[in-house]
Please model this.
Amino acid sequence: MQIEIYSCKQGKDGFLITVRENPFYIDGKGGQLGDRGCVGTAKVLAVNAEGILITEALAPGFYDFEIDEARRVDIAENHTAQHLFSGLAWKNFGLETVGFRMGENFTTVDFSTRDIPEETVRTLEWQTNDAIRAAIPVTTRILPHEEALAAEGLRRAIKDKVTGDVRFVAIGDIDLSACAGFHTENTKDIRLLKVLQRENIHGETSRFYLLAGKRAISDYFEKHEILRDICHQFSCREKEAQTFIEKALTEKKNNESELRLLADRYAELLAAKLKKDAHEDGAPALLFYKEIPTAAFYLGKYVDLANTVLVTGVGDSYTIQSTCRDCKDMVRRLCQADSRIKGGGNAVRGNFKAPVGEKELLDLLKSVLK
Model:
């Protein structure tokens, strides 16, 4: 198959071509993802009302093109699943769909009701999967605009901006909607639907995150592997994993609390030792420490900052503290002395990055103090 290019203009993210009778589905139309594929040797990056965004410049003329059919199947699975999910939500629970968006990783459906009970969500998910297994034909028909406006049984009224003939998609007696997007021929082609999560958003609206078809099956495989690895790490069964994780997190929290207490006490002893080893070429004394980050965090509590400049570091990142010298000014002068040093701060505390050796940094600090 070939496509005729009229023009090609370079844009910010690629080259926009205009074509005769664009065969690529537009991104975001009806909340659905758009087509991808290639035109000539160029890959399709996006499709909008203005044209097709591609990866390289193409001169006007005729080119072979290819549409990613696997992507269309993925879109059809997830779009049809949304119709089914929304249709059952309205039919069985009176939940009105007020928004729908299909993304590259998941689909969202917005209902005009918040705080939907967990039992309702679970039942709706089961009912949707039951309808998938029931192998219900998905049918389409096109009606003239006037006839379409008079159609009965629609889940949502036809929008005023719709003109011309209207395409209807029906799933048995579950759902009837005006839609121009891709759909499977039968609900069994969806294979599976999974509700990932839900949340209350603005006003009275709740948002559901869904996966269907290959996306849902791939998600199951990935999460199963994660769970298997967790069980291997803890030497537990799948149903015990949550208990073991909660126990590990509690132990971690307790260990961190004990570590902070020990670090605080160690910092008190360390401050006295550092005072003895301080660089005191002049007033004030310079204390430099770069070993245990947790101890460094508490060290300022036990140092006489009124007569001392304390510098602690982790990797190339350093903190400088003092009440007898302006820390902001010291950092500024360090930056001036070596262009590799970057940082800032206030009068009593500064932070800087210094990708230099410790001896070199100490010499710089001593010169700044002088």
Q: What stands out?
A: Residues 72-228 form a domain with the Threonyl-tRNA Synthetase; Chain A, domain 2 fold (CATH 3.30.980.10). The CA atoms of residues 30 and 104 lie 15 Å apart. The longest strand covers residues 2-10.
